[in-house]
Structures are given as structure tokens and as C-alpha cells.
Specification:
Layout lengths: L4 H14 L3 E4 L4 H14 L2 E3 L9 E3 L13 E3 L4 H4 L8 H12 L7 E9 L8 E7 L2 H10 L1 E2 L1 H7 L5 E6 L20 E5 L4 E5 L4 H4 L2 H17 L2 E3 L1 E7 L5 E7 L6 H5 L9 E6 L3 E5 L5 E4 L4 E5 L9 H6 L5 E3 L2 E3 L4 E2 L11 E2 L5 E2 L13 E5 L16 E9 L9 E3 L3 H9 L2 E3 L11 E3 L12 H9 L12 E5 L19 H11 L5 E3 L4 E3 L13 H7 L4 H16 L7 H15 L2
Parallel strand pairs: 1-5, 3-18, 4-9, 6-8, 8-10, 13-24, 24-28
Antiparallel strand pairs: 2-3, 5-6, 5-7, 9-10, 11-15, 12-13, 12-14, 15-16, 16-24, 17-23, 18-23, 19-20, 19-21, 21-22, 25-28, 26-27, 29-30
């Protein structure tokens, strides 16, 4: 247990509120994990997978209404609406606490309350932080054990220090004698953050980031608030180490909205001989200044919570190799011999499956067998390309930051921003065509600045100002150079021009050369783009006209983008920093003079 009085008092108060039958403090042991998975099998939440094909792995299917992040039910409750910003849903904190207290009262009746102490980042690192999640879901416990470092060691490091409290309930209390259901949840859902007391309250959902409070709730929304207060960055970014054939290594962080090839890039299998990419993290980067004035990053997570559909030996062989054992699969399809399958895993569809809703499925059915946001939870340590320094408590030095998104037109394959301020401007206007990871319309172009729109814990205009401030915190030469990539440019027939996947190393190679000041660029209205023939496309067989189309920058589209951005900036009620408005006007002038 712990001597942390604040923690003991909070657990006691939450137990009085939620009225569980038992309280269990998670120790993070293998024995505990085995008991938990056994319990989940007995409850019908888990099906044990074929031990020969997926040893130590389990299958779960959620209630069909509980399948994705619920952005419309996610709140950040600062004292004023302006502090939360137009990027967050807001309610007065007192009012919201009242609603939640009523919902949580008795919400764990007939259930066990699990107390999960967890470390975001290597235990004891200067960059790491500690959280404690209270939950009534054993599914959450086993997923948190894969996704974070949990248990006794965390409490030892915590001592009497600060931690972020997170309360979670599926909102499905049991009356005496009442039988449980395989996936308990509630149609009323709330995911709420209280910045003043740095706490998280999540009610009604048992799925993904709604319930695993170390993920987006802590690692981004609360951490972004702490980062602003303490002068660091908590970002929705992958981190990779890239080594050239000459043996030179650089670390790169990259922000992509969900389902834009982020995990594929994090585990990139290089198509160019001699180039090697190793994974530090696939989703979150926490960056702090080292004594040399450079930014050092850690991956605060311990596992991967990846989108399964579209993941295959062709698109991401390293992810497939990672999830061969000790993994949890949610809302994929189940094969007759108790293995898993999802769309894109193999070219040929199995003749017969049980789909994610638990129904028999055959290839002639009009609907996919797995949910588009089906997930795998798998230990990062199993990934064959983890960087040797992925758990370095000091972090890894970041040389470049990449922004990306799904754009079928306008944004070229790659460009470098002119300087830090222009880079922040470019991050602030990052846009992407929407996908299935968030509930709502698919294929619509929306702004997703820094890939942080759903995850920034305060007014995004202030967040942009925080990023801008970094050029005053160190010599600008110490800061990472900023680039933009777009793997998703389409031709006139709606087909992708760039082959993507392992071939993306060619773009990384160009970035690497820019970091070494190679004169391989020309200036465009958007930034520095590759000089023709400076991008290594050897052996790719892309006709010259198609290659040129990847870098085509259109004046009309540029002026349309200017209007789009102006409209977006205006939603922030005059809070957008003047430097960014200046950058927007400069962009307009560059397009006008084309």
C-alpha cells in the first residue's frame, strides 16, 4: 500500500461515493494479470485465443454503442469557458461536479473497485509523471497493465508527491443476484477533466481512451496543462530514431491525426538499403529541455493501442510481429479456430467468421467483419524495432518535428518550414480528412492543429502561444526543424500517387539531408520543397509527370486555404497570437505573387 495521505483519503472518499463491494489495490504482478484475464473469460468479456497462434492473448467485443472516442461527451471544465477555448466542450466545474456526483453515487454497487497506480514514462524519470486510476472494470485493469507501468513500484516512487487522480466507472451497478453482462456500459457518457485540481472523471464507457485514463485524458489533456505551467510539451506525436547508412542517428517526432499512417510510420520498415528506423513511441511524446538547451522526448506509454483494420504484413510488418502474443484484441473478427482477422490483414477473406457484433459473417455480407476502429493492445517491448533508448529516463534528443495529415490535394509530399515561428503557424493550421477513430462524419476536411484538436486541455490559441514561446527559451538553433508531409495526395482518378509505407523512408532521407544543411531544396509559397531530382526515387518507377504532381502548388488553392484559415482563426475571439496572423498574411502574399 501507500503512505500518501492524499491518495488514501481520495480512495476512501471515492469508495464512499461509488459503494463498491470490494476494493483491490493493483500490484501489477503477473499473477494478478492471470487472475484478471481468467475473471474476464468467466464473465464472457474475454475469449481466450488459440494458444498456438496467439499465445497469452484474448478477444473482446464491446457493446455496439461503445466503440470510439466520444468527443461530444468530452469536457474540460476550467472556471471560464474562454480558458477551455472553442476546441473543448465546457461546463461550469461546480455544475459538472454535481452531475457527476449524482451519476457516480452507487455506480460500483456489486462490483470491485480497482485502484491502479501507474507511471506515465519510465518509473523515476525526471520527465515522467504518476497517475492513479480508480475503475470498476477489470478490462481496464488488464489494458492499463499493457499500456502503462503499474503497481507497487509506482507507489514506492510516488511517496507523498503529486499524482493525477482519475475516477472511472462503466456506470452499470449490480443488484444482489443480478447477472452481469459481457460488456457493461451506460448510454449516458461523460469524460471530464478538471484542470484546477488536475483530475479526470469518466463515466459510462468501457472503451479505449474513454476508459484507459492514462491515454489521451492524462497523457495529453491534463499533461498539456502541466506542460504549459512547467515549460515543456505534451504532444500527440510518435518518436523514431533514424540511422543513415553512414551510421549517423537522429531522432524525429511526428504529429499525425488518428488513422493517418501514424503507427505505420512509427514502425517504418525502410525500403532503402542501409537506412534503419527504430521506434521510441507510436502515439505520445513528452518533451523537456535538457541542460544543453535541446528538447529531449520520452514515450510516456508502455504499450501500443493501435487501429487493427488496415494493419498487415504489407502495411506494417513490425506491428504484426509485435501483436503475435500477450495481446488484447477488441472489436475485430474471430476465426473458426479462435484466431483474429480484420479487413486488410490478408488479401483473401476467410470463408466464415464471427463478426465484431458476435454474428456469423461470410464474405458476401455487405458490412465489414471488424469495426473500423477495432483495436489491439500490445506490449511495446515485444516490438522487434524498439529503439535501444526507448526507456532512457533522460529521453532522446529531437532534431526534427513532422506534421502530417490526410490531404488529397494542395499539400505537397514534403516541405520544410522557414523557421520556428513559421513552423508553429503551419502546425496551427494542420488539416486532415476525418476517419473512423472519432465518432462523426468520415472524409470531411477539418482543422486538427498539431493533431491536438481533441486533446489540448486548454484554449488552443494559448497553446499556440506556448509553442511560440519556445524560441525565447533557448537558442533557436537548438530547436528541432519543422517539416510537413502528406502521403495521401491523389491524382485526377482519385488514386494515391505516392506508394507510402516503407517507401516513406525516401522522404525521411530528404529531411535527414536538410538537417545536415544539404542544399537540396527550392523555395515555394508553403516552405522549402525538394529540388527536382533531389528526392531519392530510385527503383520506384513513378513517371515524371506524376512525381511533379506530388509537389504541385496551386495559387487558387493557396488563396482558398488563406480564407479557410482566416475563418478558423476568427473562432478564437481575438486570442490568436499576432505572429500567427502575420504568418498568414505572409502566406497570402507569397501565393498572390505566384
Amino acid at each position: 500500500m501507500t503512505k500518501n495521505q492524499k491518495l488514501l483519503k481520495w480512495v476512501h472518499e471515492m469508495a464512499e461515493l461509488c459503494q463498491p463491494e470490494n476494493i483491490h489495490w493493483c500490484d501489477g504482478s503477473e499473477e494478478e494479470y492471470q487472475k484478471m484475464t481468467q475473471l474476464l473469460v468467466e464473465q464472457g468479456t474475454f475469449i481466450k485465443l488459440n494458444e498456438k497462434k496467439k499465445p497469452g492473448s484474448f478477444y473482446a467485443r464491446s457493446e455496439p454503442s461503445d466503440v470510439a472516442r466520444v468527443e461530444d461527451r468530452t469536457y474540460v471544465c476550467w472556471p471560464t469557458k474562454e480558458e477551455s477555448g472553442p476546441n473543448n466542450n465546457w461546463k461550469d466545474p461546480k455544475e459538472m461536479k454535481e452531475i457527476l456526483l449524482n451519476l457516480f453515487r452507487g455506480s460500483m454497487r456489486g462490483r470491485t473497485m480497482y485502484v491502479i497506480p501507474y507511471s506515465m514514462g519510465p518509473i523515476g524519470s525526471e520527465i515522467s509523471k504518476i497517475g492513479v486510476e480508480i475503475t470498476d472494470s477489470p478490462y481496464v485493469v488488464v489494458n492499463m497493465r499493457i499500456m502503462t507501468r503499474i503497481g507497487k513500484k509506482v507507489l514506492e516512487v510516488l511517496g507523498d508527491d503529486f499524482f493525477v487522480p482519475g475516477l472511472h466507472s462503466v456506470g452499470y451497478p449490480l443488484n444482489p443476484g443480478q447477472k452481469d453482462v459481457p460488456w457493461p456500459c451506460n448510454h449516458t457518457k461523460y469524460i471530464v477533466h478538471f484542470p484546477e485540481d488536475k483530475s479526470i472523471w469518466s463515466y459510462g464507457s468501457g472503451y479505449g481512451g474513454n476508459a484507459l485514463l492514462g491515454k489521451k485524458c492524462y497523457a495529453l489533456r491534463i499533461a498539456s496543462i502541466l506542460a504549459r505551467e512547467e515549460g515543456w510539451l505534451a504532444e500527440h506525436m510518435l518518436i523514431v530514431g533514424v540511422t543513415s547508412p553512414e551510421g549517423e542517428k537522429k531522432y524525429i517526432a511526428a504529429a499525425f491525426p488518428s488513422a493517418s499512417g501514424k503507427t505505420n510510420f512509427a514502425m517504418l520498415e525502410s525500403a532503402l538499403p542501409g537506412w534503419k528506423v527504430e521506434t521510441v513511441g507510436d502515439d505520445i511524446a513528452w518533451m523537456k529541455f535538457g541542460s544543453d538547451g535541446r528538447l529531449y522526448a520520452i514515450n510516456p506509454e508502455y504499450g501500443f493501442f493501435g487501429v487493427a483494420p488496415g494493419t498487415s504484413l504489407k502495411t506494417n510488418p513490425n506491428a504484426i510481429l509485435t501483436l503475435q502474443k500477450n495481446s488484447i484484441f477488441t472489436n475485430v473478427a474471430l476465426t473458426e479456430d479462435l484466431d483474429v482477422w480484420w479487413e486488410g490483414l490478408t488479401d483473401e477473406k476467410p470463408n466464415k467468421l464471427i463478426n465484431w457484433k458476435g454474428e456469423e459473417w461470410t464474405p458476401d455480407k455487405n458490412e465489414p467483419a471488424s469495426h473500423p476502429n477495432a483495436r489491439f493492445t500490445t506490449p511495446a517491448s515485444q516490438c522487434p524495432v524498439m529503439d535501444p533508448d526507448w526507456e532512457n529516463p533522460n529521453g532522446v534528443p529531437i532534431s526534427a518535428i513532422i506534421f502530417g495529415g490526410r490531404r488529397s490535394s494542395f499539400i505537397p509530399l514534403v516541405f520544410q518550414t522557414f523557421d520556428w515561428t513559421h513552423g508553429v503557424f503551419t502546425g496551427s493550421i494542420q488539416s486532415s480528412e476525418t476517419t473512423a477513430a472519432a465518432a462523426g462524419e468520415v472524409g470531411k476536411l477539418r482543422f486538427d492543429p498539431f493533431a491536438m484538436l481533441p486533446f489540448c486541455g486548454y484554449n488552443m490559441a494559448d497553446y499556440f502561444a506556448h509553442w511560440l514561446s519556445f524560441k525565447h527559451r533557448t537558442d533557436e538553433n537548438n530547436l528541432p526543424k519543422i517539416f510537413v508531409v502528406n502521403w495521401f495526395r491523389k491524382d485526377e482518378n482519385g488514386k494515391f500517387i505516392w506508394p507510402g509505407y516503407g517507401e516513406n523512408i525516401r522522404v525521411v532521407k530528404w529531411i535527414f539531408e536538410r538537417l545536415n544543411d544539404k542544399e537540396n531544396y527550392e523555395t515555394s509559397p508553403l516552405g522549402f520543397i525538394p529540388k527536382f531530382n533531389s528526392l531519392d526515387v530510385s527503383g520506384l518507377n513513378i513517371p515524371e509527370n506524376r512525381l511533379r504532381k506530388l509537389f504541385e502548388i496551386n495559387k487558387e488553392e493557396g488563396l482558398t486555404e488563406y480564407e479557410r484559415v482566416k475563418e478558423f482563426y476568427n473562432t478564437f475571439n481575438n486570442k490568436i497570437p499576432k505572429e500567427l496572423w502575420d504568418e498568414l498574411e505572409k502566406m497570402k502574399m507569397r501565393f498572390e505573387s505566384m
